[in-house]
Amino acid sequence: MDLNEIYTELIMQHNMSKHNKRDMTDHDKCEMGHNPSCGDEISLQIKFDGDVISDLSYNGKGCAISQASASMMIDLIKGKTREEAQILIKTFLKMITRENENEEELMKLQDAMVFQNIKNMPSRVKCAVLAWHTLQLLID
Q1: Residue 112 contacts residue 92 (beta carbons within 8 Å)
Q2: pTM flag (> 0.85)
Q3: Nearest-angstrom CA–CA distance, 8 and 25
């Protein structure tokens, strides 16, 4: 299986999976994200236990890339502290903009690392980063 097949398979799995796509009734904060260029919309809901992100969910509509990116991000971020989440957000965004190509550092992104080559599809970059920018607003 080549990298493109892994990329496609992971995105489709996360796009179709509903384990992170749900409304959280007891969230602490909620933030809406919108990509006007393609119509992607996301609502992120977060619950904290002190400084730890104890739960995180999303709802919304959009392309497979935006929905899969949100799901992968939630799998990665849940259980992390605000500071750890900030570091992972920065790592992801720097990967997308080619400011960070350090493989060891990027491995910390787990499944979200499949978006490394999205930078070669400029029209899809906003789809991949929508959830990450929305999370940034939630934890700032």
Answers
A1: yes
A2: yes
A3: 32
